[in-house]
Specification:
The protein has 4 helices and 8 strands. By secondary structure, the protein is an alpha+beta fold. The mean pLDDT is 90. Helices cover 28% and strands 36% of the residues.
């Protein structure tokens, strides 16, 4: 929140940019748990989820799936309905920081690929949802990761 405070004027009066993201997860059937995949950002190396800008002619969930492959090398079943939203300040190449609202989609990973576009630019790691929430910086994303874990736990009982 303290990161956003100096940019309150931009948040309330300036343009807000949209991005689309995937919470990429896999289920461990034997343990009855799920893990989430985090990637590092290219610029700062902080832990994030795969996300990107709108792509002309693509729906938000399609963009989220594309970003999951390009940034993390994973493919799977993506939910069309948004799971949630979070805000953060995106640092642009020119040094400016702009407010972004990110639409999240759940993606159940079915395949991990060795070869993907940004494999040499990022690290990725499978983590418990609790550990992932501890690694990401954005408070709203922390809460959404924990909410995703609860949702997956509930849906496990219905299968």
């Amino acid at each position: 929140m303290s990161d956003l405070a100096p940019h309150a004027d931009a948040l309330f009066h300036g343009a807000i940019y949209e991005q689309y993201a995937a919470i990429c997860y896999r289920r461990n059937r034997e343990l009855g748990t799920a893990e989430v995949l985090l990637v590092t950002s290219r610029e700062s190396g902080r832990w994030v989820i795969p996300k990107g800008w709108p792509i002309k002619g693509k729906k938000p969930y399609e963009v989220a799936a594309i970003e999951a492959f390009e940034e993390a090398g994973v493919r799977g079943k993506i939910k069309k309905k948004p799971f949630g939203y979070f805000t953060y300040l995106k640092q642009l190449a020119d040094g400016n920081r702009v407010p972004c609202i990110v639409q999240l989609h759940l993606l159940e990973v079915e395949k991990s690929c060795e070869n993907f576009p940004e494999r040499d630019q990022r690290r990725n790691e499978w983590l418990s949802f609790t550990e992932a929430a501890g690694r990401v910086r954005e408070p709203e994303l922390k809460g959404l990761l924990l909410a995703a874990e609860r949702k997956l736990r509930r849906s496990k009982g219905r299968k």
